[in-house]
Structure formats: C-alpha cells, structure tokens
Amino acid sequence: MTKLYVGNLPFTATEDGVRTLFAAHGTVEKVSLITDRDTGQPRGFGFVEMSGSDASRAMQALNGKDFNGRALKVNEALDKGGGGRGGPRRF
Predict the structure, then answer these.
(1) Residue 58: which CATH number?
(2) 44 domain residue, yes or no
(3) CA-CA distances (angstroms) from residue 37 to 32, 41, 84?
(4) With 60 labelled, which of 5, 9, 11, 51 sits at a CA distance of 20 to 30 A?
(5) Over 35-61, what HEC string results?
(6) DSSP character for 87?
(7) Residue-wise pLDDT tens for the chain (91 aa)?
(8) Measuring CA to CA, which residue among 19, 45, 43 is closest to residue 31?
(9) Distance (Å, rounded) from C-alpha 23 to C-alpha 64?
C-alpha cells in the first residue's frame, strides 16, 4: 500500500470528491482529509492510500491537475518520524 500526500486542496473538498477523483486511476483504499485540531476547519491537504501501481498512475495523472480551481500537489507521503511536536527538549 502506498500513501499519497495531496496538497493544495480547496477548502470545500470532501472525502467523497477526492475518492472519486483518484478512483479513476485505480482502487482507493482510504482517504483522509486533515482538519485543524482547534477549529475543525479544513487545512487544505490530505492523504490517499492506494496500491503501488495505482498510486504511481494517480500521482502522474493528478499532480498539477486543476481540482475546483486549485492545482493539486500529489506525491508520495514521507514517513512521519516519531517524536511528536516541536524540536529537541532543552533544559
């Protein structure tokens, strides 16, 4: 399974809309749109999980493509290292 980062999403984007967009390029396993923890408002990015070959096809087809007036940024998501928020602790 490959996780794709999808950036520059319009704030009106829905999980169903993103799923439909990516489904044209293969089977979508999961869609997660990120919202602000405090306000619940969309942050303009999310993640889509697809099989490796489907993900490659979707990345090539959709990176830079217009989606509701915004040029999408689609690339393979980087593994988030542990450690949580902030930098190293200094005492």
Answers:
(1) 3.30.70.330
(2) yes
(3) 14, 8, 15
(4) 11
(5) ECCCCCCEEEEEEEEECHHHHHHHHHH
(6) S
(7) 999 999 999 999 999 999 999 999 999 999 999 999 999 999 999 999 999 999 999 999 999 999 999 999 999 998 776 555 555 656 5
(8) 19
(9) 17
| Enclosing H/E stretch for 62 | helix 52-62
Residues 72/9, Cβ–Cβ less than 8 Å: yes
Residue 90 lies in a domain: no
**Total tally of structural domains belonging to the chain:** 1
Q: What is the token pair recorded at 61?
A: 């087809």
* Residue ranges making up the domain that contains 10: 2-76
The Cα–Cα gap between 87 and 68 comes to: 36
* Cβ–Cβ < 8 Å for 59, 47: no
pLDDT at 13: 96
